[in-house]
């Protein structure tokens, strides 16, 4: 899990573009990951990237070096992730409203999740 604090107000086109580019890069790297795993005689992996825009809760623990992200947003992101095709990206409707007019990206409607 990851989050982009710069997207918190929904107004920063550059932060939204960074988030989309990061997600796209993770999907593009799947080919290289598969090649590396094959050279190591490991099983191939497929994965999905799902992105949702809303409030999250962050818990900081004195016993851990990383924060814990949780809440309804995480749950909804997991739901759309389970319906996403392998090696693709799905974004939630609220995020789509924010990024739909960014130049250079095409979005297809996911009918249900």
Description of the structure:
With 113 residues, this protein is an alpha+beta fold. The chain has one domain. It is built from 3 helices and 4 strands; from the N terminus they run H-E-E-E-H-E-H. The relative contact order is 0.17. The model has no long low-confidence stretch (mean pLDDT 87).
Secondary structure class reads alpha+beta
> Which term fits the overall shape?
globular
**Portion of residues in helices?**
25-40%
Question: Stretches where pLDDT falls below 50 for ≥5 residues?
Answer: none
Largest beta-sheet details: 2 strands, parallel
Mean pLDDT: 87
Tally of distinct domains:
1
Radius of gyration: 16 Å
- Please state roughly what percent of the residues sit in beta strands, choosing from under 5%, 5-15%, 15-25%, 25-35%, 35-45% or over 45%: 5-15%
> Distance between termini?
20 Å
- The strand count comes to 4
Number of helices: 3
Strand order of the largest sheet: 1-4
């Amino acid at each position: 899990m990851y989050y982009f604090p710069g997207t918190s107000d929904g107004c920063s086109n550059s932060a939204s573009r960074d988030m989309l580019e990061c997600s796209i890069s993770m999907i593009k790297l799947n080919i290289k990951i598969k090649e590396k795993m094959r050279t190591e005689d490991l099983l191939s992996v497929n994965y999905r990237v799902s992105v949702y825009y809303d409030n999250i809760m962050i818990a900081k623990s004195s016993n851990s070096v990383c924060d814990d992200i949780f809440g309804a947003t995480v749950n909804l992101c997991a739901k759309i992730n389970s319906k996403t095709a392998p090696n693709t990206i799905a974004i939630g409707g609220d995020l789509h409203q924010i990024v739909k007019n960014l130049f250079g990206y095409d979005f297809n409607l996911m009918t249900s999740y």
